Amino acid sequence: MLFVDFTPPAPCVGDLNNDGVINTADLAQFLGQFGQTVAPGTGADLTGDGVVNTADLALFLGRFGQSC
Ligand SMILES: [Ca+2]
Questions:
Q1: What percent of the chain has pLDDT over 70?
Q2: Is 5 part of a structural domain of the chain?
Q3: Whole-number pLDDT of residue 66
Q4: Under-50 pLDDT residues of the chain
Q5: What angle do CA 23, 28, 29 make, to 5 degrees?
Q6: CB proximity list for 28: less than 8 A, separation 6 or greater
Q7: What is the Å distance from ligand 1's center to 43 Cα?
């Protein structure tokens, strides 16, 4: 019997340009939004509090270089 996993892929936190890798291209986007107020959870607001700040940067850097 074949089981198919329909679990949706986990959101790739930090992959801002959705190319599957968290790299310098994402960092450029991240820094472009740093300090800005955005809709919670969008763009570089990785923590979902509506502000792109050092908390988001810490999360971003923790995932830097990973693929997903
Ligand atoms: Ca990317």
A1: 91
A2: no
A3: 95
A4: none
A5: 100
A6: none
A7: 12
11 found inside a domain:
no
Residue 14, domain member (yes or no): no
Number of H helices, E strands in the chain: 2, 0
Name the amino acid, one letter, at 1.
M
Distance 21 CA to ligand 1 centre (A): 4
Q: Check: CB of residue 43 under 8 Å from CB of residue 16.
A: yes
**How many angstroms separate the alpha carbon of residue 61 from the centre of ligand 1?**
13
For 42, the domain range is 24-63
User: Could you tell me the distance, in angstroms and rounded to a whole number, from the CA of residue 3 to the centre of ligand 1?
Assistant: 31
- Domains identified in the chain, total number: 1
Query: For residue 41, is it within any domain?
Result: yes
